[in-house]
TrEMBL record:
InterPro entries: AAA+_ATPase, ABC_SmlMolc_Importer, ABC_transporter-like_ATP-bd, ABC_transporter-like_CS, ABC_transpr_FbpC, Mo/tungstate-bd_C_term_dom, P-loop_NTPase, Transp-assoc_OB_typ2. It comes from the Bacteria. Keywords: ATP-binding, Cell inner membrane, Cell membrane, Ion transport, Iron, Iron transport, Membrane, Nucleotide-binding, Transport. It comes from Polynucleobacter aenigmaticus. The keyword Nucleotide-binding applies. Residues 10-246 form the ABC transporter domain. GO terms for molecular function: ABC-type ferric iron transporter activity; ATP binding; ATP hydrolysis activity. This is ABC transporter ATP-binding protein. One of its GO terms (biological process) is quaternary ammonium group transport. The keyword tRNA-binding does not apply.
């Protein structure tokens, strides 16, 4: 097995739909590029309406493309002149609501996609996949007798059983409660990785994206702005939109100092890149909640203006002397009242800055 082989390649994809008034077309996806290697898990992350589901539908072959190409295993699947039928693409799909057949039991749901096998093999292969998602004891249950998480695992097993080259997952956790989402995101990653399955999911939840995916693409207006590993997206966002979208942060003003440093209201920070040409100039510095540490002994004080309890920590909104508001995660045993002043210091490591 060659793990670096490209399985999905999308080049300059453009897709449009007829407009509501029927007079023209509206662009849903434009100039979209991404690549996924065999065994990799990718995720398209973006807010509602940015075009995520449209991309999945196009990969499945449900939408014709207006421009660009979709290649599966180096074979052209969609372009302006080529359109492989869905059943020729070897792509499986898990829908938002799982779309299990209510009148079929769990085993029959999974066996449904195995029509190409002789009937005596269908049940045993389906049973094998049920084992892989740890649901062997539910083979004769009906979908309505299962929890949301169990239904999701059945949907995943049903999509994996015909052994497609690629599995597409459309907001796979959106109908589940938050606690379950986090656990299942990790579980789903384990199942996909254990079976060396290539997958592309879409979500608007960055924690879900980071919990599952090897590569994440931040989308807006039908485009992927940055297709990267989560660490790079967080620490080296390609532009302000991504910096703003990922994590909890605010931009504060800073002045570039000699020696690759920047001075902000809270002190001086080392810069990652050479800024010698910008000395004396003003830049915007991204301060994330995890760049600020609460320190009772610090002389630097900030006023608590808002607080959200998150269990292990609080997300505090803090007002600096200048009136600028920043965020800080603070362990939840430091329960300070709104209006109180608390000591803080800077712990920023990778400093993200923008000039224009
Ligand atoms: N069948 C359609 N006809 C016309 N416009 C459509 C159609 N499907 C989607 N659109 C439009 O295309 C754009 C992208 O839609 P899409 O469903 O791909 O977004 P999305 O990012 O998946 O959103 P969500 O997270 O809300 O599901 C939206 O502006 C939407 O209104």
């Amino acid at each position: 097995m060659n793990s670096t082989r490209t399985l999905l390649s999308i080049k300059e994809l453009e897709i449009d739909y007829p407009s509501r008034d029927g007079r023209g077309r509206v662009t849903a996806v434009k100039g979209l590029n991404l690549e996924l290697a065999q065994g990799e898990i990718g995720c398209l992350l973006g807010s509602s309406g940015c075009g995520k589901s449209t991309v999945l539908r196009a990969i499945c072959g449900f939408e014709p493309v207006k421009a660009g190409e979709i290649l599966l295993r180096d074979k052209l699947a969609s372009s302006t002149t080529v359109h492989l039928q869905t059943n020729q693409r070897k792509v499986g799909m898990v829908f938002q609501d799982f779309a299990l057949f209510p009148h079929l039991n769990v085993l029959e749901n999974i066996a449904f996609g195995l029509q190409h096998l002789p009937s005596n093999q269908r049940s045993s292969v389906a049973m094998e996949w049920l084992k892989r998602v740890s649901l062997s004891d539910k083979s004769d249950a009906y979908p309505h007798e299962l929890s949301g998480g169990q239904q999701q695992r059945v949907a995943l097993a049903r999509a994996m059983a015909p052994e497609p080259d690629l599995i597409l997952l459309d907001e796979p956790f959106s109908s589940l409660d938050i606690e379950l989402r986090e656990r299942l995101a990790g579980e789903m990653r384990e199942i996909l990785k254990a079976n060396n399955i290539t997958a592309l999911l879409v979500t608007h939840d960055q924690f879900e994206a980071f919990a599952i995916a090897d590569k994440v693409g931040v989308m807006t207006d039908g485009k992927v702005l940055q297709w990267d590993v989560p660490y790079e997206l967080y620490h080296k966002p390609a532009n302000r939109y991504i910096a703003d979208f990922i994590g909890r942060g605010v931009f504060v003003k800073g002045i570039v100092l000699p020696g690759n440093k920047v001075k902000i209201e809270l002190g001086e920070l080392e810069l990652d890149h050479d800024h010698s040409k910008d000395i004396g100039k003003e830049i915007d510095v991204l301060l994330r909640a995890d760049d600020i540490q609460h320190d009772d002994h610090s002389a630097m004080q900030a006023e608590v203006v808002r607080k959200t309890f998150r269990g292990a920590d609080f997300l505090y909104t803090l007002k600096l002397a200048s009136g600028v508001e920043i965020f800080a995660f603070v362990p939840s045993h430091h329960d300070h009242a709104i209006g109180e002043k608390i000591g803080i210091h800077l712990v920023a490591d990778h400093v993200v800055t923008f000039r224009d």
